[in-house]
Design brief:
This protein is an alpha+beta fold. The protein has 20 helices and 34 strands. Bound molecules: cytidine-5'-diphosphate. InterPro entries: Ald_Oxase/Xan_DH_a/b, Ald_Oxase/Xan_DH_a/b_sf, Ald_Oxase/xanthine_DH-like, AldOxase/xan_DH_MoCoBD1, AldOxase/xan_DH_MoCoBD2, AldOxase/xan_DH_Mopterin-bd_sf, CO_Mo_DH_lsu.
């Protein structure tokens, strides 16, 4: 390095934390050089696909595969009867339930996997599927969770013994179709506070069933090498190590003989966390045929059968003083889990972190009760771009605040302000148990309201109502507000495990002699840009340029064990592991530098990219010098090499927050909303890469718009999926998406080594209630209190109609 390089130039050269470093991944993605699972082509590779049930609830009387075996190219047809002797006809779900890999005597939802056809290519497999004859006997279909809790119809035979419900994975059942009850908070004190309150607002809301719908569907390639007994499994896995452990446990193949590789992944959003029958069947088919087997879903398979999100019926009561100080909150949830309980939640939290439903508010007393229920719908219950059930929780409280504001005849922004947890109350222990690490809600709220000129907007809205009443316009104006607190970064291990696997994460760093490095993590990017940002954390921690650091994830043969990427946990957990491993490197580098500079260890200090002798900055060794010396110079008492590993068990989760405002015009005659403005202020603590954060916010808001304004997995009474294609399932395009304005405050996490909180999912969590509140607020002056999402044009039109606005 030139001698005349300034300190600022040295900092800039690192491209460390705080810099909008361009995404290193994009060179391959923009040139079509990504390597997704369907790009993997192996010699002699076969293709597997499913015969799926057309019925939502039926007994299987017979499966005849003889004609299918005659189809040219078809090599095998697997059924439950073939898997049962191997003990592979069922698999544990992430929630500890028993999910059939191939339906064993009965189907529980439309699209359920009945048989697996293995063929020489996809086309032959499709022909084989057509030729398999399955004889079904239809059974009564239950798609309504409330009906499921009343009916005599038993959906799952394993829930009943001697005519009585048996205990499930999460305790006693109230009914044969009931899965669990989960409670948090204080029931009696909450009832007492609500009974004696000045004002109580009540509302029931349905957070509809939707789906993460990643652009790339789920899939895998299984390759069993019988010569050396090694199974390699490439797939769209958000948690490759967890998949390896689960595959080992259910197949009996020792874990060191399984290599799981997540190549590039085209979006996950929770959909690719769990294990699917396709993975098990591909592995079995590869073992049976001794050839690699690929399974890739099509869009309908993905929407109809892989993990859904939400489907929560939430009933709330919120109490307050006349002045608007909230005193208590009660929430009851009826959670529709479909045919198997395959929710992706830490074991101790069968309703995820729904107990963050007191939101950003200082609510002294609260009680939450969740009942999980089986129905004839697809299994799932994953956190679609949010931490476990946090979107449901934030939607609930942000709607309850709006309803309370109506009850109090008060401005909803002011109601929020007077109830926010104050800056000096952090760390704050909420009534339902969580300890919020840090926050400064009033500053964020004031900044947001000032930026959008909130008072001006309300005045304009009032004029619009007058004009509407006077017949001068047919458009109403809605101002959507939301203030959210996310809870991201699961562990700690003492609280959080999935199937007994503790939720820590990891980073292993190897510095090469010439001063470049490779770092491997237990997480896996699905578009979030980890290769860019984790190198930035390291650049700042170890003083080598980010451009000289390769980040690798997703190969269990090389990466240290970790629990993967979902619930915005990468930065809070693996990001912390990265910083901690970097600090171990730095500690050893300090000793080497002191030796080279012939001073005591304490007499050198780290400065950007070097260690300098204290008080004599002209005497220094750069990290590059130190890396070379670490390998090539015999240093007394110090082992050669410069490597470190950190397994990080976070002491707490991180609590990012944000303040969002949406301004919307609604045409009451067509029901079409026009999003005029969307302002999003996010606080994710220390910001690693502002450009990537902005991209994450744009993406999260767009998925929030989708969910709030149209996206839905809808069923008819027969259990038919009505929205199983992208013709019916709303995916927003540039046409619907507004120009987002982003902003931020910075409130570092006090326990995270670099003060960073997660951000990837915050905009979704805050965005859904903000869009929904804008729609509902447009109709507030005409008596609207609450309408359920999704607010598609038809439903908005119906709201206007029900309020008499078409008369
Ligand atoms: O777990 P996931 O990667 O989905 O979410 P995340 O930890 O919130 O990170 C999403 C992306 O935003 C990553 O590339 C992070 O490094 C980046 N990020 C950031 O630059 N600064 C933060 N404070 C948080 C995340």
């Amino acid at each position: 390095m030139k001698d005349d390089v300034t300190r600022d130039e040295r900092v800039a050269n690192l491209k460390g934390m705080g810099c909008s470093r361009k995404r290193v991944e994009d060179a391959r993605f923009t040139q079509g050089k990504g390597n997704y699972v369907d790009d993997i082509k192996l010699d002699g590779m076969l293709f597997g696909d499913f015969v799926r049930s057309p019925y939502a609830h039926a007994r299987i009387k017979n499966i005849d595969a003889s004609a299918a075996m005659e189809v040219p190219g078809v090599l095998a047809v697997l059924t439950a009867a073939d898997l049962e002797p191997l003990g592979l006809h069922w698999m544990p779900t992430l929630a500890g339930d028993k999910q059939m890999v191939l339906a064993d005597g009965k189907v529980l939802f439309q699209g359920q996997e009945v048989a697996f056809v293995v063929a020489e290519d996809r086309y032959a497999a499709a022909d084989g599927i057509e030729a398999v004859v399955v004889e079904y006997e239809e059974l009564p279909v239950i798609v309504d969770p409330f009906e499921a809790l009343k009916t005599d119809v038993v959906l799952r035979e394993d829930t009943v013994q001697d005519g009585k419900p048996v205990d499930g994975a999460h305790g006693p059942r109230k009914h044969h179709n009931h899965i669990f009850t989960w409670e948090a908070g204080d029931k009696d004190p909450t009832e007492e506070v609500i009974a004696n309150a000045d004002v109580v607002a009540e509302e029931t809301m349905y957070y509809h069933r939707t789906h993460p719908c990643p652009l790339e569907t789920c899939g895998c390639v299984a390759s069993m090498d019988k010569v050396n007994g090694k199974l390699t499994l490439w797939g769209t896995f958000q948690a490759p190590h967890a998949i390896r452990t689960v595959v080992s446990l259910i197949s009996g193949i020792e874990e060191h003989n399984i290599r799981v590789i997540s190549p590039d992944i085209g979006g996950g959003f929770g959909n690719k966390v769990g294990a699917y029958p396709g993975y098990v069947c591909s592995v079995v088919a590869s073992i049976v045929t001794a050839k690699p087997v690929k399974w890739i879903e099509d869009r309908m398979d993905n929407l109809m059968t892989t993990a859904f999100a939400r489907d929560y019926w939430m009933k709330g009561r919120i109490s307050a003083t006349k002045e608007g100080k909230i005193t208590g909150l009660h929430c009851h949830v009826t959670a529709d889990h479909g045919g198997f309980d395959a929710c992706a939640d830490p074991t101790k939290f069968p309703a995820g972190f729904m107990n963050i439903c007191t939101g950003s508010y200082d609510i002294p007393t609260a009680f939450l009760e969740v009942d999980g229920v089986y129905t004839n719908k697809a299994p799932g219950g994953v956190s679609y771009r949010c931490s476990f059930r946090v979107t449901e929780a934030v939607y609930f409280i942000e709607r309850m605040i709006e309803v309370l504001a109506i009850e109090l005849n008060m401005d909803a922004a002011e109601l929020r302000r007077i109830n926010f947890i104050k800056k000096e109350q952090f760390p704050y222990t909420a009534a339902l148990g969580w300890e919020y690490d840090s926050g400064d809600y009033h500053t964020a709220w004031d900044k947001a309201l000032k930026t959008v000129d909130y008072e001006g907007l309300r005045a304009e809205q009032a004029r619009r109502v007058e004009d509407f009443k006077a017949g001068k316009t047919r458009k109403l104006m809605g101002i959507g507000l939301s203030f959210f607190t996310e809870i991201v970064g699961a562990g700690p291990v003492k609280n959080c495990d999935i199937l007994g696997l503790g939720m820590f994460d990891s980073c292993e760093i190897r510095i090469h002699p010439t001063g470049s490095a490779i770092a491997r993590l237990g997480t896996i990017s699905q578009g979030q840009g980890h290769a860019t940002t984790f190198a930035q954390i390291l650049a700042s921690e170890i003083g080598l340029p980010a451009d000289s650091i390769t980040i690798e994830e997703g190969d269990t043969d090389t990466a240290p064990y970790g629990l993967g990427t979902y619930g915005s946990r990468s930065t809070p957990v693996a990001g912390a592991a990265t910083a901690m491993a970097g600090r171990k490197i730095r500690a050893k580098a300090q000793m080497i530098a002191a030796y080279l500079l012939e001073v005591h260890d304490d007499d050198v200090e780290f400065d950007v990219d070097r260690f300098v002798v204290k008080g004599a900055p002209e005497k220094f060794k750069t990290m590059k010098d130190i890396a070379f010396a670490a390998y090539n110079q015999a240093i007394p008492g110090i082992e050669p090499g410069l490597e470190a590993v950190s397994y990080y068990d976070p002491p707490n989760m991180t609590y990012p927050f944000g303040a969002y405002v949406c301004v919307m015009d609604i045409d009451v005659d067509t029901g079409v909303p026009d999003i005029r403005r969307f302002y999003a202020l996010d606080d994710c603590g220390t910001r690693i890469n502002p450009m990537i954060i902005e991209g994450q916010v744009h993406g999260g808001l767009t998925e929030a718009l989708a969910v709030a304004l149209g996206q839905e997995i809808a069923y008819d009474d027969m259990g038919n999926v009505k929205t199983g294609t992208l013709m019916d399932f709303f995916l927003p395009t540039a046409w619907e998406v507004p120009n987002y304005e982003t902003d931020y405050t910075v409130t570092p996490s006090p326990h995270h080594p670099i003060g960073a909180k997660g951000v990837g999912e915050s905009p979704h969590v805050g965005g859904v209630p903000c869009f929904s509140n804008a729609v509902q607020d447009a109709f507030r002056a005409f008596g609207n209190r609450h309408t359920n999402m999704p607010h598609d044009h038809w439903r908005i039109w119906r709201t206007a109609n029900a309020l008499g606005l078409h008369d």
